[in-house]
Amino acid sequence: MTYFENINRIQYEGANSTNPLAFKFYNPEEKINGKTMEELLRFGVAYWHTLTADGSDPFGNATMIRPWNKFQGMDLAKARVEASFEFFEKINAPFFCFHDFDIAPEGTTLSETYKNLDQIVAMIKEYMSTSKTKLLWNTANAFTHPRFVHGAATSCNADVYAYAAAKVKKGLEIGKELGADNYVFWGGREGYETLLNTDMKLELDNLGRFFHMAVDYAKEIEFTGQFLIEPKPKEPTTHQYDFDVATGLAFLQKYDLQDDFKFNIEANHATLAGHTFEHELRVARINGMLGSVDANQGNPLLGWDTDEFPTDLYTTTLAMYEILKNGGLGKGGLNFDAKVRRGSFEPEDLFYSHIAGMDSFAIGLKVAQKLIDDNVLESLISERYQSYTEGIGLDIVEGNTDLHKLEAYALQLGEIKNKSGREERLKSIINQYLINVSSGVLV
Ligand code: XUL
Ligand code: CO
Fold first, then answer.
1. Is 203 in the pocket of ligand 1 (CB under 6 A)?
2. Which residues, listed in sequence order, are joined to residue 60 by a DSSP beta bridge?
3. Distances, alpha carbon 24 to alpha carbons 123, 267, 284, 361, 431, in Å
4. Which of 186, 229, 277 should be mutated for ligand 1, with most atoms under 8 A from CB?
5. Cα(219) to centroid of ligand 1, in Å?
6. What are the two backbone dihedrals, phi and then psi, of residue 305, each rounded to the nearest 5 degrees?
């Protein structure tokens, strides 16, 4: 059966194309600094937003028109698999991602849930054998069902903790079976609503134990995917434990997990934490912890996770700058953890939205590479920190000084002179690169 009848495989047609169902900037084969765009960007489709979500929100019912919605239960799950591989092929996606709950319905018991999962995983594996689309990551949904009301690995209820552990165990087996490149832990309800009823220390210690058990089990079954923590500061809980990259890193270091995990950084989670997307990428990068990206964008007018498709070129440029400076994403990718707006309810909107996101990151990639090639930021930054390359500055960075020596140095200083940071000049240079590179003037 065909689910997207009137849509052919999306092709690259170039910046002047007026075909809404064509890439204008994402040219998978085009090489940037020796690697193809496809290899560098590693786009992923999020199963939950594209195949499963129905457009309902706290004030309104489902709006999405999806040809597979005529089915129910396991038939619906199977129809979604068929539709998903048709979509992956037509949008030319090298990767996809899912939660256990997205691909197969929960049964009345855990063993029944496993049976449902096994059937769908076998079907996905079959489709994958003839498709180029690979599994970027999978994860366990330990937040939707009412049993997770107080959390999963940080629940006050040990039975819930055990149930969540079983889901992760199964998730790792599925990841291994389907050859996932990563396994994600987003702490859905790992946080608290009020300290008045919360043993924070026990909850965090339990979370550390949980991750160690997952690491051990991955070794046991020889699952070689990269483990990723996806920070988010709030929503659904008031205070999520994996608040941001810095908080997550301190947690990993405290529980001696830093060598087994990296971060999956989501743009909208960064902004909810009061950071920019590029800030989170930078913190992860300079600590060798940048694993993968949930590519979306938030709405600055709203205080919650809107998961919009990324279209802000300034942000995609600065994000790709961090990713290129990181030497790429390795096993990671750019997963569109993004949903079409509730009013964009027709099946073709799934294509328009992915095209918009893929083109936006393709532009970001080209502009970022050109900025790096031309040494634009690096030359200004090295000039700015020049004082650490000689004299007292060199003594500081080489660890050859102490407070006595620094005091003696400071006492003989005359008036200290600083130089301008040139922020506005830099911003206008980035605008110039954005306009010129995307219009083909600077290539
Ligand atoms: C929720 C979110 C999740 C994770 C995977 O905000 O981002 O979809 O990406 O559980
Ligand atoms: Co996400």
1. no
2. 57
3. 34, 23, 31, 12, 20
4. 186
5. 25
6. -80, 105
Cis ω for the linkage preceding 347 (within 30 of 0) = no
Does 354 participate in catalysis according to the annotation? Answer: no
152-191 burial, b if ≥16 CB within 10 A, otherwise e? bbbbeeeebbebbbebbbbbbbbbbbbebbbbbbbbbbbb
Residue 385 is encoded by which pair of tokens? 């920190």
Supply the DSSP symbol for 48: I
Asked if the peptide bond before residue 236 counts as cis, ω within 30 degrees of 0, the response is yes
The SS3 assignment for 217 reads helix
- Residue 5 to residue 164: CA distance in whole angstroms: 40
Q: Residues 275-311: pLDDT tens digits?
A: 999 999 999 999 999 999 999 999 999 999 999 999 9
DSSP letter assigned to residue 143: S
What pLDDT is attached to residue 439? 85
Whole-angstrom Cα distance, residue 258 to residue 261? 6
Maximum Cα–Cα distance for the chain, whole Å? 82
pLDDT of residue 443: 58
* pLDDT value of residue 442: 65
DSSP 97-112: EEEHHHHS---SSHHH
What is the spatial distance between Cα 358 and Cα 364, in angstroms, rounded to a whole number?
A: 10
The residue from 49, 99, 269, 354 that is catalytic is 99
Take atom 5 of ligand 1 and give the residue whose Cα is closest: 186
Positions of the chain with pLDDT lower than 70, given as ranges:
442-443
The pTM for the full model equals 0.98
99 catalytic? Reply is yes
Please say whether the beta carbons of 288 and 327 come within 8 A: no
- CB of 232 sitting under 6 A from ligand 1: yes
Locate 356 and state its tokens.
Answer: 């918009």
3-state helix, strand, coil in the chain (%, to 5): 50, 10, 40
Question: H or E stretch including 22?
Answer: strand 22-23
Contact in structure between 307 and 337 (CB atoms under 8 Å): yes
Ligand 2 center from residue 2 Cα (angstroms): 29
Beta-bridged to residue 185, according to DSSP, are 229
Distance from C-alpha of 92 to C-alpha of 11, rounded to nearest angstrom: 9
Q: pLDDT tens digits for 85-144? A: 999 999 999 999 999 999 999 999 999 999 999 999 999 999 999 999 999 999 999 999
